[in-house]
Amino acid sequence: MTQFPRLSPVSFKLVALMMLMALTRYHSAEASAWLPDASLAVFFLAGLLLTQALMLAAFLLLALAVDYLAITYGGISSYCVSPAYLFLLPAYAALWFAGTRCAGGQQTARSLLVWLPGSVSLAFLISEYGFYAFSGYPETADWQTYSLGVLRYYPSYVLPTLAYVAAFEGISGLLGKPGNRLAVSH
What we know:
By secondary structure, this protein is mainly α. The chain is 65% helix and 0% strand. It contains seven helices and no strands.
């Protein structure tokens, strides 16, 4: 009988995050109603787990690969792939950076309550500004009209992210030893 190598708790969590992003990012708009994209939460949680910039680069490459496969082989629309797509880099980096700030020192519910919604809001603003300014689509709307129209998407941007992070934290707590936190000392 072949034994599989044992993963460290951090490695297991990273693999789980990669699978979560791949599964939730590679689906149609219809499926997102019951399984929203977890990418925002994944970038935040990746920052919590390991603060090395290599982790950010690895998850950015994973997101790019999943998008490429979804568009090329999955029949997903390429509507969002424009020069504005580059604005996902600083948007995701903001989430990852916020995760690293929570990982520094003692992670508390209070730090999560500050950094997570703040970074998700910043990522929303970055990606939406990038789409408005560089996608070439909203040509007829001025910035104010566009902003008011986009605000209706804000709750669907924030709420699933908060839910994924809460679920991941809860599962991590259940699987870990008492007092074991998601953040790992470096």
